[in-house]
Design brief:
By secondary structure, the chain is of the alpha+beta class. It is 23% helix and 35% strand.
Length: 139
């Protein structure tokens, strides 16, 4: 069976871009303030950077990795955030916090998993707060 691009998804943006936009809307509805999308540096890209004003530690900088999949043939989207990806995101977060002088704020790593089941118009969005610890030490 040949795979066809679902009609409800835009062909002008990649699946990843659409997933990031959906994740940003999802987090905003939960009260987060999204401060950066697709933040790029020489090291790589952070999908979303947000501030959680309701964290028990006070305002918390949240580095969000968004994983989007159509169907489960390759597993759950969140399974793609392994130790190498965690290490890379940790490096990016340290760089971001230093570049914008945000080291005094607490920070955490969240993962937003978006699964669009084949034939469904509604994605399943799962938010994993504090999904992993920083894998590098800040200078």
């Amino acid at each position: 069976m040949q795979w066809k691009w679902p009609r409800f998804l835009s062909r002008s943006r990649t699946l990843g871009q659409q997933g990031e936009a959906l994740a940003a809307r999802f987090l905003k509805k939960k009260g987060y303030k999204v401060v950066a999308r697709s933040h790029r540096s020489a090291l790589g890209e952070i999908d979303l950077v947000a501030v959680d004003l309701h964290d028990s530690r006070g305002p918390t900088l949240v580095f969000v990795e968004v994983k989007t999949r159509i169907g489960q043939s390759t597993g759950f989207p969140e399974d793609a955030v392994g130790s190498q990806k965690q290490y890379k995101l940790s490096q990016l977060a340290v760089q971001y916090r230093n570049a914008y002088q945000l080291t005094e704020y607490s920070a955490r790593f969240d993962v937003v998993s978006i699964l669009w089941p084949i034939g469904s118009r509604q994605p399943e969005v799962t938010h994993f707060q504090d999904a992993f610890d920083c894998a590098v030490e800040a200078p």
